[in-house]
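Holo prediction — GCB.
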Amino acid sequence: MRKTHYFLFLFIFINTLISAQTSQEQLLINTYNRPSQSLNGTWNYIVDPYENGYYNYRRDAFDQQENPDVSAYFLNSKPKDRSDRIEYDFDTSKEIQVPGDWNTQDDKLYYYEGTVWYKKSFDYTKTDINNRVFIYFGAVNYIAEVYLNGKKIGMHEGGFTPFNFDVTNLINEKDNFLIVKVDNKRKKEAVPTLNTDWWNYGGITRDVKIIETPNTYIQDYFIQLNPDNNKQIKGYVKLKGEDIANKKVQINIPELKIKTQVTTNIEGIAPLEIKLKKVTYWSDTNPYLYNVTIKASQDELTDQIGFRTIKTSGQDILLNGENIYLKGISIHEENPIKGGRANTLEDAKLLLTWAKELGCNYVRLAHYPHNEHMLRLADQMGILVWEENPVYWTIQWENEATYQNAKNQLTEVISRDKNRAATIIWSMANETPVSEARTEFLIKLMKVAKELDPTRLISAALEQNTNKNNSNVMHIEDPFADYVDILSFNQYIGWYVGLPERSKEIIWNIKQDKPVLISEFGAGAKQGLHGDKLDRWTEEYQEYLYVETLNMIDKIPQLRGFSPWILVDFKSPRRHLPVIQDEWNRKGLISSEGKKKKAFFVLKDFYDKK
Ligand code: GCB
């Protein structure tokens, strides 16, 4: 397909994808910079393991009925008189903070997986009577059924991506009540599936806000450098609303003295090509961001956008045409110090500042899309990012609904972050067992990602194989390796396979002519536990493993970076060893109390010398 058609195809494709999969509206882009009224703060909640507020006693869902019974929790019913029987009451129920997971806010919910109802009451005054009003959720884990003033406004599946609903016709000036049924039960057919190595934090885990836009508004845009011409911005702006055809759209980048006007087609889409003369390219050493303003109809939106190219050439990764080595670390979205899911700018600062201290120019955000603060901050700090879809381990490869779900989550994260310079890699999956159905599933996802975003690189954390005749010779034998731009794999020699000295014997025989990233290696260590380098769980063992692994992988000719497992200890229900683990995966270079372990300095030293 010719590149010009490519971008036109791309937005049509995005729209069809998002509206086909879920009942929410198409995702509003850059809500980060839109004026909003926050619905964060204190909400009331009801724990409902039997889903009593959702089904009647014949197990019919109330929200499928025309006149639901007063027992439906989303009605927020109140007794009409002293004889009336209503068996719930949000206003006298307990309080919880949003954003936040429920596991770390209520001891009784530490292990809970099921339904919790949330309620927030609020007033809202529109700034203009003709405007539209949206309710936007940064993320809810895992299924959200959303009701405003007793009416269902939609649902969303997937714990780590944003969604929004147009509530223009439902919102009132006074006494609105927003009710969300959140269900984090793990399911075989879900994405991720039953089995992971991280805590299944439930709840409204990211910001909730009300966004007001003019009646015709900027729903989406893609404003990035043309990967084939670094003197040109290429992309599109897309309007939605009542009057979208033949509209003038202005794109201003004052610092570059750019003022361009384009016109929308009948679908509200204005393709974009802007010539650049002199531009400071965004990079890890100079994370330069431009203010870009988009104006259309009554709407105006500003974003901070960096311009850079990212490509591969043979075995090299090229940032702005120059070789780059990715000095990375893997990160889970957790702040162990405050406990639970990370979700604020302060949390992002803590994690990314630690990564910088370690000498990183790159992070792998595992194993699902992280909150937008992380990406915005990475843009500002000059940290390159690998973003990942939660296709982890044993997904139901043959289940079409599972595929649609994975595709939808991937689409949402690409929609949100496609203008972030920091994001350079979309990862399709982590450690998925090779089979025909799985490879087909991943190839389809890869095509979706490439179609949505032709400017970034595709990868997936694969696994290595041992040579049949010589167990010391390792290679990558995975049909999906043919489809990735960067060949990445996790390897645990010295931890799950042998002891650290085993690394000395290993020979990597990687045949693929592609840049290689090692997406994980690591060892568990309890901070403060000391001993011999062969005493498992000591800082010395972890330190030893890092020394040996770094020696080993540095000899891989195609190696262009790596992201050890992991920056900080994180909660995992798979880790039961008392005193040592206590439900923490201890592979962090920093402990759950924020203390650096010895291996931190081994890696820092390696990165400082690179
Ligand atoms: C892996 C997984 C990661 C686990 C890690 C471990 O290979 O990708 O999610 O947490 O190993 O610690 O075992």
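READOUT: The CA atoms of residues 44 and 94 lie 6 Å apart.
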